[in-house]
Task: structure prediction
Amino acid sequence: MRLANILATLFLLTSFAFGQTEPLSAELTTKDKSDAIDNVSVEIDVKGGKKPYKYVWNKENISIYNKGYNGWSEGDSIKVVVIDANFDSVTVKGYVEPNSFSENVNNGMKPAVAFLQKVLFANIWSDTVKVKEFRLKAPFAIDAERNNYTIKEWLKKDGEAVKHLEMIAILKDGDHEFPFYAMGDGVLIHGVHDGVKVTAGDNVYFTNKKGNRSEKILGRIDYPSPQPFYFKNLTNKSQGIPLIVLWLVAGAVFFTFKMGFIQFRGIRHAIDLVRGRFDDPNKSAGEVTHFQALVTALSATVGLGNIAGVAIAISMGGPGATFWMILAGLIGMASKFVECTLGVKYRHQKEDGEVSGGPMYYLSRGLEKRGPGFKQLGKVLAIIFAILCVGGSLGGGNMFQVNQAFNQLSEIPGWEGFSAYGLYFGIGMAILVGIVIVGGIKSIASVTDKIVPAMVGIYVVSALVIIGFNYENLGHGFGTIIKGAFSPDAMYGGFIGVLILGFQRAAFSNEAGVGSAPIAHAAAKTDEPVSEGIVAILEPFIDTVVVCTMTALVIIFTGYAQDPEGLEGAALTSAAFSSSLGDWSLYVLSFAVVLFAFSTMISWSYYGLKAWTYVFGETKISGLIYKFIFLIFVVVGASVGLGAVIDFSDLMILGMAFPNILGLLIMSGEVKADLKDYFVRVKSGVIKRFK
Result:
């Protein structure tokens, strides 16, 4: 009896010991692979608890299925919440100290970037994005290395009710199996692909008509009422109206009405001015022609904003974002008119004929006429603008351009080894840029008036060829854009979300209201400030209405609007062109990107130079110092990772809009009076037509 009791006790103790689950625990390890920025690898090792585990990262683009991540930035805190099948959780944290010079510079710029983002992108209004359904796609489905990736079995039947994060299927990647979770409470509907129901054993990916790998929609969860849209890390998507976008759009709308829709009634006169029909061959102060001023300003805006910006807008907001980009471009034409008119009116011309102009001058000189209070305000706004302009010229107008041009060339098939020659590419570009900018605005204009028509021609002809191939679908293409603008997919944030995104990308693309273009237009050979303002309205039209629309149609016609295949930015546009024209178009597009970057750099060197000399004095020594710094930054931009440095510079360019538009609003009355007087003199013949 005693032996039986002992054995029973041992059995119970053994059962209890083996029946207990080891407590959930996790360990986070990191590895900084090199001195380059943003290349930290993070791994999570989990023990105990009940499998399977979910990993909730503090970055919205990292999936709950990821137990590791490559590409974390040095100096950024890492936080991962590990959740097991019993919904027990443990939190692990990590941090990688920046060590190299580039890592420390990148990390040191992050507080400044965060501050500017907080100011510029402060939401005037915000709301959570809600959707009526969630489309189910397998994680890592477009990873080409996962060749045997299938649905092993559905755990929930078609039409069955499911709960948020409930297991609905088992996915099998080779020998590895893991659960697939529901997102939100609703009814599971199994997907249909090519007319056939998605069942166990089916691949989670498919080969599309272009021969590329795409994510298969495995099904959807229908919600009984709209629920928040989930990012990959289970956080909710929100949308808002950023302050900078509202400031730019509100200014453009105000100027449109204030100037009597000058962008429409002045377009024909603008073309006549560019053709030189009102140019007096015997007089006019300035250094360059109307056409040269136009292409110099265009060279700073037509470029990566068109190639990458439209692709970003479509991938984030669908084809409908293009409609709002076009509308923003049309109203932005009025902002260009006002700022470029003032740029010529308040320019400063030295005895040797060299011209300096732009917001620095019309903010200080124009506001000075309005009294002592405005005089001080004008000086402060001018200095703020000049500092922002110098910073923007060295980053977004320089390092970012050469960096993107180098990356574009490095991604050409067969050119992979080119990525090791960033320093030499930077030196070569610096020499070419230096040769041009040493000669000043006349030299810059003589180059841009050849490069801009060539690069726009190459890009537009390539786009027109693709559009021509799809001529019968032109109506469908525009219909897709219009439908997407007014009845967009809820996942894009609905009508408001797509509208905001379109306006935002257009503002970044054409820079209307930012204040950069008036610096170039101030050098135009004219005694009539209004005439140059009218010429300037062509910039947003060409940049946003024409070039961006063509880019959007190419992306739509090639199918990448419906299925981006995980591509973003310039890579998405490149893929769209090459899928229709063949791989040779990658060389053409890459060449165009290099031309875009080169022309943008030489134009922004002039913008930065004028802002620099406004602050430090209009002397040759001051100018040479800036040009030397600019060329050094060309080499740096091509040879190192940029990260937060470029983010900060881009924000400085956007920040230029605050002092600029404030000054434009104050001086809009005198511009309206000048415009009225100008057209009276044109109609009366006082302003003569010479051709």
